[in-house]
Every structure is written in structure tokens, then in C-alpha cells.
Amino acid sequence: VQLVESGGGLVQAGGSLRLSCSASGFTFSSYTMRWFRQAPGKEREFVAAISSLGSLVNYTDSVKGRFTISRDNAKNTVYLQMNSLKPEDTAIYYCYNQPYDTWGQGTQVTVSS
Length: 113
Fold this sequence. Notes:
The chain has no helices and 11 strands. By secondary structure, the protein is mainly beta. The strands form 2 sheets. Strands 2, 4, 5, 6, 9, 10 and 11 form a 7-stranded mixed beta sheet that branches. Strands 1-3-8-7 form a 4-stranded antiparallel beta sheet, with no helix packed on it.
């Protein structure tokens, strides 16, 4: 089981980024997928989740209306579209599969003010 994130980078406040998480080694379309993030000196926190077929999503309050989670089961990939980025969104972003308790290596997002 493997998860590989990509798409992070440095962006100015108000900008956008789209993160991708490519999955392999399990039946991707059968499982809810989640994004988490960890800012320097802070605990890892939940960001967003999407059900196996994409019909249900939920977000932490701080990103509602700015971030959108989606998935393409044909490509075994989950996405996180991040708009109106703020400096407090700076963190390493991870995707996660709970049944297999598997994390990706993370992708750094840095938002400058």
C-alpha cells in the first residue's frame, strides 16, 4: 500500500494550489480518503475527507468554502484544491487511508503574507 502526494509549493496569500495523492496497492475506489496537515510545532490535524464514490465530503471548519476535496477512481487519485490560501495554511499536507493506516510522505505548502 502506497500513497504519494504532490503539488505543494510556495504561494502568496490569496493564491491557489492543487494537491494530488496517487494511491496504489489496494482497491482505491472502496475506501474513504482523507487529507491531514501538520504545521511547524503543531499536531497533525484533519483537513478533509471524501467517501469511496465521492458522494460525501466533509471539511474542518477553517477550510470550508476555500478547499475542495475530490477523487478520480479511474486514476486512483484524490485531490485537494486549495483557494484563497492564508499564511496559517502553511503545513505539510498528507493523505491517509484509515483501514490500512497508511500515510504518504507529505507535500510542503508554504503561504507567504
